[in-house]
């Protein structure tokens, strides 16, 4: 047997991750030591015995082999959670292409260097009703300062002490007074910065309806099988998926196991927090993407010690080190925020399934608009596919009208609003109901289309939209195909061909011009610069301080506004003509979400979708809220073009300050790939400039690879990594791999 060496870290607080020590693995231990194993080693001059984790195993000694110390043996007491996470990191490094160090940094939290600051918080202690009564009593007696602070606390608890003093102008005596009355508590942050924490509550549980019960029953049956599959719960908006998750969570907690609930970055709203807190009380902790590394570390510490048993949070919450993980829920599983844009470009959906396998935890994902990847797995049986077809209490799905903007142009209407949408806005303003106007800018990158006939300029080879560039050219970002910009529509000769230009601000102005009496709130990048601007705007709209909310995709995610009875989608085509193969899927998702915002309360809702391509299947299917219909068309297109999920696809992305050098470098990569894998079943395209071709003076280019098997692409990546490492020419550029495009 040949000699093996292990790289070992002895301190897994992140600053020291780079410091590894190499030890020889004695022959008799070779079968017992893997990446992640916790081992005992002799350390330092006196060779005192300490423990560490194996993070890599190689055949290459870094120092003279004869001088290397040997591992004493594996730690015997069980497998610590760190071991499992380290082996998960190794899997991530291998499957997404990164160094072990980058993967470890993704998986393990950073310990905070600076001393924790003690911060004080005011927390509502009385029940909401008592607090409300007390507030009214204060108002009657004109205790203005007390009333003001009570109002503040009712809106936000916990409230930082400084905020009470500075914003709500509460003197210490006022705070003390409320504390005496038993209304509030002043707590130091022993609570480990747990971002939410409310005083009293009793567990509130809802009776599931028949469809929900059926879903829970089938999932529990699946869990009893020898090899339980992940579940995909496809349920229309408002069908009560969250109630199903909560029921399942309860069964897992009852077995003494823990739960991770992933939600898209933007969805951690007050509503989500309330729902989970009401049901599960103190055992649940919430992570949001703005937590500092140290705050995340603290939360993970709580989880490791068993002080919490549910974590609700974005992508990074997936790595919560629970000792006995029982379930991972992925809500809105189709969301793109589950994918990391940084190396390693892992996808939380895939990593969750992997973690589930390793730790014997169950996986449940849910969506009203599942990703094609997951639905296909549901169709072919590798996932359990369950459907909730109807809204809870049979509330009607909104009635949707599709307006053809070509017809509006013909009829002489050049405004951003179709005649129908104008009429409906007017009607809602009169009835004092609320309206959402949604500008669909997501994925918009400057495609060119004809306003007379709807023709879109596309790449003849890749069937994605060409993107107009400042140099007066139209370019395909998959294969690099380029043509000069057009002045006339190649299909109908109309001169009305060009890019789309209208922003949220213009829409707001337009609403004021047409309906001077309307009160409008606008939510876009400009009005949400500060940390809590989002919540403020949404809260104001929820309090009915405005009739119309205008905005980009931030306004259509997961919020529940019962008085919204009309949603207008202003430019459905913007995302439809994105320059990548997911444009149709993204459009369907966005439109379905947007439409689903209408009629969530007792009053039925309506939606108006304005488009130049009313016949496009993404538009038709979202108007009918017909996911299976959409899936059939979309999967046929993917199959025809060889796009995922019918084939695996990966990108080799390069960035470099020198454009020529970058092109050369990637061309060498392409030639190298062709040499090591001459098979015709591998499709290579590019190098082509990325959609954002230059960022901070770095040029960006990409090669795409497609093959039947993901594994083949991973093997090619392995070879390519070595090729890049040994060739000096690549020193001046960054190369990154991406397996989920
Ligand atoms: P989804 O997650 O599928 O969009 P939700 O779980 O948010 O749906 O449910 C939509 C609404 O219906 C929520 O207001 C929820 O409280 C309510 N709801 C769902 N199921 C029940 C139930 N079994 N009992 C009472 N209310 C329910
Ligand atoms: Zn035309
Ligand atoms: Zn092309």
Automatic annotation (TrEMBL):
Q: Which GO terms describe its molecular function?
A: 3'-5' DNA helicase activity; ATP binding; ATP hydrolysis activity; DNA binding; zinc ion binding
Q: Name one GO biological process term.
A: DNA recombination
Q: Name one Pfam family in it.
A: Zn_ribbon_PriA
Where does the record place the Helicase C-terminal domain?
Answer: 485-643
Q: Where is the Helicase ATP-binding domain?
A: 222-388
Enzyme class, first EC level, given as a word: isomerase
Q: Does the keyword Isomerase apply?
A: yes
Q: Which UniProt keywords apply?
A: ATP-binding, DNA replication, DNA-binding, Helicase, Hydrolase, Isomerase, Metal-binding, Nucleotide-binding, Primosome, Zinc
Family to which the UniProt record says this protein belongs: Belongs to the helicase family. PriA subfamily.
NCBIfam families cross-referenced by the UniProt entry: priA
Q: What is this protein called?
A: Replication restart protein PriA
- What organism is recorded for this protein? Blautia pseudococcoides
């Amino acid at each position: 047997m040949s000699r093996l060496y292990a790289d070992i870290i002895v301190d897994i607080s992140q600053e020291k991750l780079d410091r590894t020590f190499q030890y020889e693995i004695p022959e008799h231990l070779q079968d017992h030591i893997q990446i992640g194993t916790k081992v005992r080693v002799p350390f330092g001059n006196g060779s005192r015995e300490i423990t560490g984790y194996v993070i890599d195993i190689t055949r290459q000694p870094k120092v003279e082999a004869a001088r290397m110390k040997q591992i004493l043996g594996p730690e015997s007491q069980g497998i610590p959670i760190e071991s499992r996470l380290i082996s998960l990191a190794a899997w991530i490094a291998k499957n997404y292409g990164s160094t072990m160090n980058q993967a470890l940094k993704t998986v393990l939290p950073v310990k905070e260097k600076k001393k924790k600051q003690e911060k004080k918080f005011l927390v509502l202690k009385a029940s909401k009703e008592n607090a409300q009564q007390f507030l009214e009593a204060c108002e009657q007696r004109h205790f203005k300062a007390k009333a003001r602070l009570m109002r503040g606390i009712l809106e936000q608890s916990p409230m930082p002490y400084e905020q009470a003093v500075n914003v709500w102008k509460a003197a210490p005596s006022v705070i003390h007074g409320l504390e005496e009355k038993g209304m509030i508590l002043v707590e130091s942050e022993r609570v480990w910065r747990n971002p939410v924490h409310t005083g009293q509550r009793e567990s509130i549980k809802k009776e599931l309806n028949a469809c929900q019960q059926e879903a829970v029953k089938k999932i529990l049956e699946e869990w009893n099988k020898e090899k339980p599959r992940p579940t995909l719960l496809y349920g229309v908006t408002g069908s009560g998926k969250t109630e199903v998750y909560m029921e399942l969570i309860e069964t897992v907690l009852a077995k003494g196991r823990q739960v991770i609930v992933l939600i898209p970055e933007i969805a951690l709203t007050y509503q989500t927090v309330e729902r989970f807190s009401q049901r599960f009380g103190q055992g649940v902790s919430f992570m949001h993407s703005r937590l500092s590394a140290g705050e995340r570390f603290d939360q993970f510490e709580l989880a490791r010690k068993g002080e919490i048993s549910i974590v609700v949070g974005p992508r990074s919450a997936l790595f919560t080190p629970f000792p006995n993980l029982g379930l991972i829920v992925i809500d809105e599983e189709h969301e793109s925020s589950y994918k990391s844009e940084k190396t390693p470009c892992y996808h939380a959906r895939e990593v969750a399934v992997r973690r589930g396998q390793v730790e014997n935890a169950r996986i449940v994902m849910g969506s009203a608009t599942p990703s094609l990847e997951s639905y296909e797995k549901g169709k072919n049986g590798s996932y359990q596919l369950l459907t909730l077809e109807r809204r809870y209490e049979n509330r009607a799905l909104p009635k949707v009208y599709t307006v053809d903007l070509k017809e509006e142009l013909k009829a002489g209407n050049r405004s951003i609003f179709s005649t129908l949408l104008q009429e409906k806005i007017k009607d809602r303003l009169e009835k004092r109901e609320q309206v959402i106007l949604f500008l669909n800018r997501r994925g918009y990158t400057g495609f060119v289309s004809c306003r007379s006939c709807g023709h879109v300029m596309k790449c003849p080879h890749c069937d994605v939209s060409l993107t107009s560039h400042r140099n007066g050219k139209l370019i395909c970002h998959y294969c690099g195909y380029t043509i000069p910009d057009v002045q006339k529509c190649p299909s109908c000769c109309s001169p009305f061909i060009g890019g789309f230009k209208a922003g949220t601000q213009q829409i707001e102005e337009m609403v004021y011009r047409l309906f001077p009496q309307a009160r409008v709130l606008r939510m876009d990048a400009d009005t949400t610069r500060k940390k809590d601007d989002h919540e403020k705007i949404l809260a104001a709209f929820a309090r009915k301080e405005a009739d119309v909310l205008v905005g980009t995709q931030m306004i259509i995610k997961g919020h529940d506004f019962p008085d919204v009875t009309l949603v207008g989608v202003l430019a459905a085509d913007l995302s439809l003509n994105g320059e990548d193969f997911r444009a149709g899927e993204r459009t369907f998702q966005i439109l379905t979400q947007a439409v689903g915002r209408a009629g969530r309360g007792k009053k039925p809702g309506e939606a108006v979708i304005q488009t130049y391509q009313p016949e496009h299947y993404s538009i038709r299917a979202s108007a009918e809220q017909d996911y299976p219909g959409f899936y059939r068309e979309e999967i046929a297109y993917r199959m025809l073009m060889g796009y995922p999920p019918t084939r695996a696809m990966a990108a080799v992305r390069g960035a470099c300050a020198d454009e020529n050098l970058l092109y050369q470098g990637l061309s060498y990569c392409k030639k190298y790939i062709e040499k090591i894998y001459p098979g015709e079943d591998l499709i290579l395209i590019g190098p082509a400039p990325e959609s954002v071709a230059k960022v901070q003076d770095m040029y960006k280019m990409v090669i795409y690879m497609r093959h039947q098997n993901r594994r083949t692409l991973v093997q090619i990546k392995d070879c390519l990594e070595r090729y890049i490492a040994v060739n000096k020419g690549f020193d001046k550029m960054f190369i990154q791999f991406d397996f989920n495009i």
